[in-house]
Amino acid sequence: MSLCREHIDIAPGQSYPFHVLATKYTYEGNPCSAGITLVLTHSLGVHMETWEITIAHLFKLSTSPSSGIKLREIFSIESPNHGRSAVVNAEEIAKHPRNDWTREYARAVQRFLVTMMAAESRTNFVSWNLIGVSHSVGAAALFIAAEALPAIRFQSMITFEPGMTSKDSPHRHRSNQAAIAWAWLRPDVWRSRKAAKKELAASPMYSTWDSRVFDLFIEHGLVDHPAAKDPPPYTFPGVMTALSKEHHARSFQSDDLVVDGINSYAAVTKKIPVHVVWGRIHELANQELKDFMADASAGRAPASVSYIEGASHMVIQQKPEKAAEVIYSIILSDSRRMFRL
Fold first, then answer.
1. How would residue 128 be classed by pLDDT, with cut points 50, 70 and 90?
2. Could you check whether the bond before residue 233 is cis, i.e. omega within 30 degrees of 0?
3. Domain limits of the chain?
4. Alpha-carbon gap, residue 63 to 60, rounded angstroms
5. pTM (2 d.p.)
6. Which UniProt keywords apply (predicted)?
7. 3-168+254-340 adopts what CATH topology?
8. Which of 100, 157, 179, 321 has the highest count of CB atoms within 10 angstroms of its CB?
9. Which among 208, 240, 219 has a CA at the least distance from the CA of 316?
């Protein structure tokens, strides 16, 4: 059995200028016509396919004879300036401010959910068992979208290394400085995918990734350089990162990360179970931030907090199958708890 993919492209409209791309995943041979629907959002700098190893393992777990849960389908939504979305939205991106892409990702998620809800012949997000799964900046986007759309009822949320904090946190300033410096200094143009793969595989960050997730990044996180279309002798047939260095660096200036995101997170924790999963290795998030996200006295009350050993901030890229096992375990635990109620 293998993953089945359906590519979704929600065209721009009067109220939203960008294409919203997503991939719908099902499993070949999976007879489940009812069950759980997952909605996934990704971290900064990757692409919607970055979840595929996790998704495949989730379907494997859910289709085993002893499985306690059934997955109907999984949707992975892409930020409009990442991956293939950056190519189809290139002309509109050039007109857009460069530092509010967390908000833009939240708007893209809202547009996707509302569009899919309206197309009830395909999907009815109002009545289905819907669970949100997010990583890093994708957490802010998904929590903002969920709070803005009360008619679309998520049963629960699972968030990995959520990229949110308070506006005045000293940790925010330290982590942002490091992240911005890395974003501006990272390599972003190569002569070929082969050259990019060789250089990135030796880098401190990408060398920690699961090799299968890394290969997905080389395939989907890089795009043809615009100069490849120039006539000879001006042609440059190289590749570049889909997310520009400027958009990457300036994303950390967005208050959506640190004000709206954390407020929406706190509001959602009061309505449904929210499970927070951290990498055990402190990187962008230190223990102070991890405690901050679970401060019930400030209205932030996650249903559980857990850790994945041997992982840091890029936990989905480093431990994709372990992430799937954590998601499966949380969903199973929640379903048993609801059954007892």
1. low
2. yes
3. 3-168+254-340
4. 5
5. 0.94
6. Hydrolase
7. Rossmann fold (3.40.50)
8. 157
9. 208
